[in-house]
Amino acid sequence: MVSAPPPLILNVDDTDAARYAKTRILQRAGLRVIEAGSGTEALEKVQNESPDLVLLDTKLPDINGFEVCRQLKQDPHTSMVLVLQTSASYLASPDKVRALDSGADNYLFEPIEPEELVANVRALLRLGRVERELRDMDRRKDEFLAILAHELRNPLGPIRNAVELLRSLDPHASPAQENARRVILRQTDHMVRLVDDLLDVSRISQGKIALRRAPVELCALLRSTVETAEPNMASRQHLLTVQLPDHDIWIDGDSVRLAQVVGNLLNNAAKFTAPGGRIALTACLEDQDAVIRVTDNGIGIDPEQAASIFDLFAQAGHSPDRVQDGLGIGLSLVRTLVKLHGGDVQAHSAGEGKGATFEVRLPTQAGTPQADATDCGTAKPAARPTDAYRILVVDDNVDSAEIVSALLQFAGHEVHMANDGASAIEAALRLQPDVIFLDIGLPDMSGVEVAETMRRNPQLAKTVLVALTGYGQDKDRMGAMAAGFNHHLTKPVNMETLNDTVRTFMRP
């Protein structure tokens, strides 16, 4: 086995006698030594010879040692080279501080005892070896994550496509079969999100996230992001309020990555807020910064964890009704993307159980108006579009009710849920919805009985009743219509069918 050569030291000193003495000391200690007599020569030899350590005198004829060290540490190709700075002229404590601030790994006053010089060089070389090993391990970790994410993604597409094919081949499957398919699809989508998180971890670690910058109007971007996040909010019955200024706010940024920042913050708020909780999104101008705030009344943050909440893989508890999911990557990615945009993100909380606010600050472009004192007002519930309706979804299968609600919420409707006949009747009388999607097979009474009860109440005379059931035979349709339903749909239904049904029966 061929042993590795001894470490290579570059000895930089313009005084021949001092340089010779230090070289002999290092050579007797078993180290290889090359020499330079000026700062320019030192910079050239570092580039060409790649020494492990530079023994650098501060007083040089052309460039002082402080500047040589600064240039070495700022150059990505030489930044990891160790620098041990020495001086017989700059002997005050501020001189040592200046050297260390310039990037030196240590600073020694001359004259130096031979044993002390060798001990310091060997100590720095040991630290450098450990640092190289850690960097190599980190590189291998990044490569492993990238390969793992790629290999995990390969089977997910066929799994999802196979379930969709089964649904097409047997569109009238029993509720139990359809529920199993939904479980597979839901868990596959969850796996896709985790794989995407793994890829983002790899990109963050390798510094490969690049922005595609262009002028971005922030308010329009936030409105679009809210539409994407609303199904998740609706599935957990969160009240999402939005407050945006009337004027434009222009950002020089990557619209996809900025949407990812806000989407991650909204999804994080939903994840850590119990069902029925409140989440607010606001945007405004403060001192020519665009300020985005996402506030919730969820589980809050322990003050001791606030400083580390943006660290990679950090997770600070979870909502009591949910198992802890995800990899703890979302907030770390938010911080990375915000900093790439020249901004800052902070988390604020009064403590556990007292909710949290995440605040993003981004520099604005020229053309954005001056900040108005009324910009940062209280968030208000988003106005319902003129073609949006109040809808009640009734299904004892929670997953089924949530997915239908999410699809309708995504279309802009106000959606509520019930999971049995009694609560459906109570909710219908309280909400007086425009449309009710009602399952036939309920645990306490059949959907037919629920419909008959609703039709006897004059408050619900104008409510459209739609049977949404796994029973799709002719006799099932006839029975539903006789009970007072306006329409009959057989599970599963897609978003287009749901929206077409609402538009058809609500058309003036």
UniProtKB/TrEMBL annotation:
<dbReference type="InterPro" id="IPR005467">
    <property type="entry name" value="His_kinase_dom"/>
</dbReference>
<dbReference type="Pfam" id="PF02518">
    <property type="entry name" value="HATPase_c"/>
</dbReference>
<feature type="domain" description="Response regulatory">
    <location>
        <begin position="390"/>
        <end position="506"/>
    </location>
</feature>
<feature type="modified residue" description="4-aspartylphosphate">
    <location>
        <position position="57"/>
    </location>
</feature>
<dbReference type="Pfam" id="PF00072">
    <property type="entry name" value="Response_reg"/>
</dbReference>
<dbReference type="InterPro" id="IPR011006">
    <property type="entry name" value="CheY-like_superfamily"/>
</dbReference>
<keyword id="KW-0808">Transferase</keyword>
<feature type="domain" description="Histidine kinase">
    <location>
        <begin position="147"/>
        <end position="366"/>
    </location>
</feature>
<keyword id="KW-0472">Membrane</keyword>
<dbReference type="InterPro" id="IPR003661">
    <property type="entry name" value="HisK_dim/P_dom"/>
</dbReference>
<dbReference type="InterPro" id="IPR036890">
    <property type="entry name" value="HATPase_C_sf"/>
</dbReference>
<keyword id="KW-0418">Kinase</keyword>
<protein>
    <recommendedName>
        <fullName>histidine kinase</fullName>
        <ecNumber>2.7.13.3</ecNumber>
    </recommendedName>
</protein>
<dbReference type="InterPro" id="IPR036097">
    <property type="entry name" value="HisK_dim/P_sf"/>
</dbReference>
<feature type="domain" description="Response regulatory">
    <location>
        <begin position="8"/>
        <end position="125"/>
    </location>
</feature>
<dbReference type="GO" id="GO:0000155">
    <property type="term" value="F:phosphorelay sensor kinase activity"/>
</dbReference>
<keyword id="KW-0902">Two-component regulatory system</keyword>
<keyword id="KW-0597">Phosphoprotein</keyword>
<dbReference type="InterPro" id="IPR003594">
    <property type="entry name" value="HATPase_dom"/>
</dbReference>
<dbReference type="GO" id="GO:0005886">
    <property type="term" value="C:plasma membrane"/>
</dbReference>
<dbReference type="InterPro" id="IPR004358">
    <property type="entry name" value="Sig_transdc_His_kin-like_C"/>
</dbReference>
<feature type="modified residue" description="4-aspartylphosphate">
    <location>
        <position position="439"/>
    </location>
</feature>
<dbReference type="Pfam" id="PF00512">
    <property type="entry name" value="HisKA"/>
</dbReference>
<dbReference type="InterPro" id="IPR001789">
    <property type="entry name" value="Sig_transdc_resp-reg_receiver"/>
</dbReference>
